[in-house]
Amino acid sequence: MATPTLKIVSVLRQTADRVLQSSNYQWGHMGACNCGHLAQVITMRNKAEIHKRAMLGIGDWSEQLNGYCSTSGMAFDEVVSEMQRQRRCSFIFDSLV
Question: What element of type H or E holds 37?
Fold first, then answer.
């Protein structure tokens, strides 16, 4: 299990605020769902960019994270790698591994 840190709490609060205040929330949109909003906060990419990259792969967030490969060169894997480099969302990967 991941260890809670102030960075993680801050990112989750920012994400929750975005979801609550946004009229752009879409459960089935890879850039505008819960994880999509989290990716927007961490990577500073917009929902369209995240969704576009995700649509090059197969599956939802869970399936694509399970198939993640840091050296694949796939566009969505680059988003995930960027999230990992920020070291603010390692808790996502801890729960899937």
Answer: helix 34-43
Domain range for 58 is: 6-96
Judge whether 27 lies within some domain.
yes
How large is the angle between the packed helices 6-21 and 34-43, nearest 10 degrees? Answer: 120
For residue range 26-75, list pLDDT tens digits in order: 988 999 999 999 999 999 999 999 999 999 888 898 888 888 888 888 88
Alpha helix locations (H) across the chain? Answer: 6-21, 34-43, 47-54, 61-66, 75-85, 90-96
Nearest-angstrom CA–CA distance, 51 and 29: 7
- pTM above threshold 0.85: no
| Domain contains 1 | no
